[in-house]
Structure formats: structure tokens, C-alpha cells
Amino acid sequence: MIESLGKRDFTLDDVYAFERHLGDLYPGNQNVRPKIRQQLQYLRDRGFIEFLSRGNYRLKS
Hints:
With 61 residues, the chain is an alpha+beta fold. It has helices at residues 12-16, 19-25, 32-45; strands at residues 9-11, 49-53, 56-59.
């Protein structure tokens, strides 16, 4: 999903743009935005992305 943004630096709002698509994929999940944030934290903790500042991230190579 993040790679499909086509840029290395991205914002939380960029990822929130997928909210409707993710909601359609997972109709039982009534908390899509919190899940997006949770997954960004997971990717950060695993070293796939870097937290730059509030709402700003960088995809690591």
C-alpha cells in the first residue's frame, strides 16, 4: 500500500486516502483509522518506515 503512493516521504493523510478501500476489504473492521496507525507503528518498529514528525513518515530503502 505505501509503495503504491510512489514517493519515499508520505503523510498520515496520504495513507488515510486508502481508508475507504481498506474498509471495503475488511467490512468487519469498524476502526480503520486506528488500525492504519497501528500498522504504521508496526512498520516503524520493524524498520520498514521512519517516523519523521507528527503525521510524517519516510519509507526506508
